[in-house]
Design goal:
The complex is a heterodimer of chains A (302) and B (300). With 302 residues, chain A is mainly α. Chain A has helices spanning 8-34, 46-69, 95-103, 110-114, 117-133, 140-170, 176-192, 199-211, 213-217, 228-238, 257-260, 268-280, 284-288, and strands at residues 73-76, 80-83. Chain A has 13 helices and two strands, in the order ααββααααααααααα. In chain B, β3 (70-73), α5 and β4 (105-108) form a beta-alpha-beta unit. Classes of the chains: A mainly alpha (302), B alpha/beta (300).
Chain lengths: 302, 300
């Protein structure tokens, strides 16, 4: 049976199935080419995770947060960050931290640090190559393959649609729905191949999010200057929105403007409780850490 | 003679190099664990906590297994029973072990159910030859389904199981012999039982075959009022407190007896202190085991 001889509605149904099949094929090829077994992250470096999640901007933000928490940067007048006295760039533990310390010789807005081209370039140079080597970010070859596969899919969709449109026009039939379908499925195909991360990168990031989920819940228990490693991982995996503003006021600069003005915005509610905790130091929330899980310890005997 | 001494010293040094120290996986400690993998060699995952987990959660554990070696620890199989172990549980355990590929898996020498009724507790089983044979049979069945022998862990108990005709250490040793399983020696359980039942904990160690000890648990506990009117109070192994000093002393003794590399795990189930405090306890454990190993080396 020649599908091009199908009447309009039946052909649209056929075309929808073809489009779904093409989409599935593109998705399947992407999964097959970019998936695989999870890999070992080198030393679970929070900078790598931050770069994987949000690129150079997130890595720089993390660097600023880590340096403030390590008391190498001072959060001056609650707005700008500046290098503390007797601190030199060599106190940074990696190229990015050293560059941020250099940049902060004079008081600087954290937001402008995050978008600073030089810092972004250093972050890119430091973290993109290992992530590409680990196949967590899409390299040029991967992007080319994606474009080729999507291109073939779109050509197929448009050729089939064009033949039927030509037939329909010759027979004086309406073709607008078919044209819409062709563009719709092409857009979905492009949507399927989008993303700077590979399938494996998405998986690793999703798995880290899952593993650290409990940390997000107890973020309010984090105290400044005592657990920089945990703060760094929290911010690397979930972003500044997960860090309580009360205890870490400098992260306010990295949050969307809408949450800056309120202590109880979309992400601010968590922070507002964090605010009372952090500000209170040994407040009742602090006791929360000593009321923890319980688990099956009480059963004894294990 | 001198060659033997050097060989012994090399053995001890080699084992010390390969000793591993770790923590029980707790989601609340995730960041602390992953931020300190330079000081944590191994992580223990509680099997039953994963049985009801989503596939995404189990997949996340697979990713964790690529960052740090995992061990699977069961708490509800209950092989120390004359009833056969539940095959469905073993199937789930086998699937988990297959996915996480742990260095070894372990289970308690405890009874956890009677008929279809779950006790919700790791209960000590009567220490008789009948329970030794039944436990060995259960462990053999578990090994056949899971694909590897478990390490078996001695438990803490608040009451001496009735109808027993031998001591705890005799029973544990007999189970090890009958089943072929190595021992995951929980030093805090030994400590707790020694306080509750007045025995010498070092003597307990002396009566175990040191070559069959493959791993160590350390933990903390607290005194509680006893329901038994004859005693004022009992010591509870609750995993909510710091490791007490006598447990480190016992670890020194273990280091002086066991030549093979050991995996030492700190169990903490709640009231979590900052991770650096847990790491400090792990460092103390490292130092204690090393001290024991040095003692052997010096004596040789």
């Amino acid at each position: 049976m020649n599908p091009f001889e199908l009447p309009g509605p039946q052909f649209l149904a056929f075309y929808a199935m073809l489009g779904a099949g093409v989409l599935f094929a593109v998705y399947f090829l992407k999964q097959r080419a970019e998936g695989g077994e999870p890999i070992r992250l080198p030393s679970t470096d929070p900078y790598l995770i931050a770069y994987l999640r949000g690129g150079a901007t997130e890595a720089v933000r993390l660097g600023v947060a880590v340096l403030v928490d390590r008391q190498l940067l001072d959060f001056e007048d609650g707005v700008r960050v500046v290098r503390r006295e007797r601190v030199t760039p060599t106190h940074g533990s990696n190229d990015l931290e050293r560059a941020i310390l250099e940049q902060c010789e004079t008081a600087t807005l954290p937001g402008s640090l995050a978008t600073n081209q030089r810092l972004q370039e250093i972050a890119r140079r430091s973290y993109e190559p290992p992530l590409l080597r680990m196949r967590l970010l899409a390299d040029s070859e991967t992007r080319l393959r994606r474009v080729q596969e999507a291109g073939l899919a779109i050509v197929l969709l448009f050729v089939v649609a064009a033949v039927k449109v030509a037939i329909g026009v010759a027979r004086n039939r309406p073709v607008s729905f078919l044209v819409l379908f062709a563009f719709g499925f092409s857009a979905l195909t492009l949507f399927t191949i989008r993303g700077r991360r590979t399938v494996l990168g998405e998986r690793v990031l999703g798995d880290l999010t899952m593993l650290f989920d409990a940390l997000r819940e107890r973020a309010n228990e984090l105290r400044p200057y005592t657990a920089t490693g945990e703060l760094a991982l929290l911010m690397a995996v979930f972003g500044a929105g997960a860090v309580p503003i009360g205890a870490f006021p400098f992260v306010r600069a990295f949050r969307p403007a809408t949450t800056n003005t309120s202590s109880c915005g979309t992400s601010g509610c968590g922070s507002s409780s964090g605010s009372s905790c952090g500000g209170g130091g040994g407040s009742s929330c602090g006791g929360g850490s000593s009321c923890g899980g319980g688990g099956c310890g009480g059963c004894g005997g294990s | 003679m001198a060659e033997a001494a050097v060989a012994a010293e090399v053995d001890v040094a080699d084992a010390a190099v390969r000793d591993r120290f770790g923590l029980t996986w707790q989601p609340a400690l995730a960041a602390g664990i992953l931020a300190n993998l330079d000081r944590i060699d191994v992580v223990e995952v509680i099997a039953e906590e994963q049985f009801g987990a989503s596939s995404r959660a189990t997949r996340a554990l697979e990713t964790l297994a690529h960052q740090v070696p995992l061990l699977v620890h069961g708490v509800a199989l209950g092989p120390a029973s004359t009833s056969p172990v539940d095959v469905r549980r073993l199937d789930r355990l086998a699937r988990l072990v297959e996915r996480l590929d742990p260095a070894f898996w372990s289970e308690h020498l405890a009874c956890v159910r009677a008929g279809d009724i779950e006790i919700g507790h790791l209960a000590a089983t009567p220490r008789t030859s009948a329970t030794i044979d039944a436990t060995a049979a259960n462990l053999s069945r578990a090994a056949a389904i899971v694909g590897s022998m478990p390490m078996v862990e001695n438990i803490a108990t608040l009451m001496d199981p009735p109808a027993s005709d031998r001591s705890e250490v005799e029973w544990v040793s007999s189970v090890m012999t009958a089943s072929g399983c190595d021992l995951l020696l929980d030093l805090h359980n030994v400590h707790a039982n020694s306080l509750n039942f007045d025995f010498d904990q070092v003597e307990y160690l002396d009566r175990l075959d040191p070559e069959r000890i493959g791993a160590i648990h350390i933990a903390g506990g607290c005194w509680i009022e006893s329901p038994d009117e004859r005693r004022e109070r009992r010591y509870l192994d609750d995993h909510l407190h710091d490791v007490p000093d006598p447990v480190y002393d016992l670890l020194v003794e273990v280091g002086a007896r066991v030549r093979r590399p050991l995996t030492v795990l700190l169990e903490r189930d709640g009231r979590f202190p900052p991770v650096r405090h847990l790491l400090w306890q792990l460092d103390r454990a490292r130092a204690a085991l090393a001290e024991g190993r040095r003692r052997v080396s010096n004596e040789t």
